[in-house]
Amino acid sequence: MRVLSSAVMGAAFLLLAACGTAVTPGGSGPAQTSSATAPPPSATPPATGPVTGVGMVIDAAGSPELCLGPVMESFPPQCDGVPLGGWDWTSAGIQEEAPAGTSGPTRWGTYAVTGTFDGSTMTVSSSVPLALYDPVAPPTPEPVTPPQLTVEEWAGVEAGVRRLPGLLTSMREGDVGPVLADVVHDDGTLQRWADSAFGPGAVRVTSMLS
């Protein structure tokens, strides 16, 4: 009888282990960073209307890009940016230029660029040199208190955020959340995924095309 009890207890332990430790988002238990968590969207969401992005436009060999994230401090500068369709340097205004080899010169300048975005390429409708740009202050979102997570759980959140499509930068200030994630574009899809996966307030997604 004692042997039978031990076998039953062992089976029960294995069953509990197989169930994992995922909890309802926003709860006090571990964040949903296991395989039970739905994966993030596989592509950057397109924009349904005109959007504006602010950054450096770099054109090397006739391939202009809008840099929404970090720019390498080289000469000429370099970045991994959003391809621009319909960009016209003759009407762009202030710009700099560096001679290059057989591929031609590299041009760059900082602008506020407006246009449509299909999820990969921005088609330009207008641009303003950044020195002349007067943006309208966006509404301040209502702050959401981050969930109470352990150090290991916050590490899981940061690892999950690095899977977001179009991620430019991510960071967490000190030991008080949330994880701040800058992405190329979000129509709300990426924020909803983060809220579902890690709990409301754990991640704050900022769309650089808005």
**Assembly context of the chains:** single chain
Helix content: 10-25%
Tally of alpha and pi helices? 4
Strand count: 9
Distance between the termini: 68 Å
Shape: elongated
What ranges have pLDDT less than 50 throughout 5 or more consecutive residues? 1-36
| Main sheet: strand order | 1-2-3-6-5
Q: Helix- and strand-based class?
A: alpha+beta
Walk me through the structure.
Helices cover 20% and strands 28% of the residues. It has four helices and nine strands; from the N terminus they run αβββαβββαββαβ. The chain has helices at residues 2-19, 89-92, 151-161, 189-198, and strands at 51-60, 63-67, 82-85, 96-98, 106-117, 122-129, 167-172, 179-183, 203-207. The strands form two sheets. A five-stranded mixed β-barrel has the order 1-2-3-6-5. It has a three-stranded mixed beta sheet with strand order 7-8-9, with helices on one face. A hairpin with a 7-residue loop joins strand 4 (96-98) and strand 5 (106-117). It starts with a helix and ends with a strand.
